[in-house]
Request: fold
Amino acid sequence: MKQKLLNFLKILIPFTLVLFVLHHLAIRALSDQYTFYYSTWSIYLFHFTITFFIYLAVLSVSNNLPDKTGFAFLACSGLKMFAAVVFLIPIIQGKAPEPIADVAAFFIPYFLFLFFETVFAVKLLK
Reply:
């Protein structure tokens, strides 16, 4: 389990850093046109943390109850969606000056991290 987690982190950390830098550059280029509610680092801290804990939970279930790994991933994905809604409550309540830009700035990395999680969950299922 420890080796799988380390291998996951060896890929997750560079993945996060590359996306963060690209996203940060895009946000800086758009900062003249849009005012963003959340900073780039807070969005990526959220995604990195959620992705790490989801993989940790799915890996733990995979080691203890291998036939329930898929269900654990689905449950964790549901919790991730709920956490995303909670994270976005200020935008939903209309406190953000540019809600469409903020939603896009959050959900583009959300789906990239979801794809990343799915790839590793499928590896655990095999």
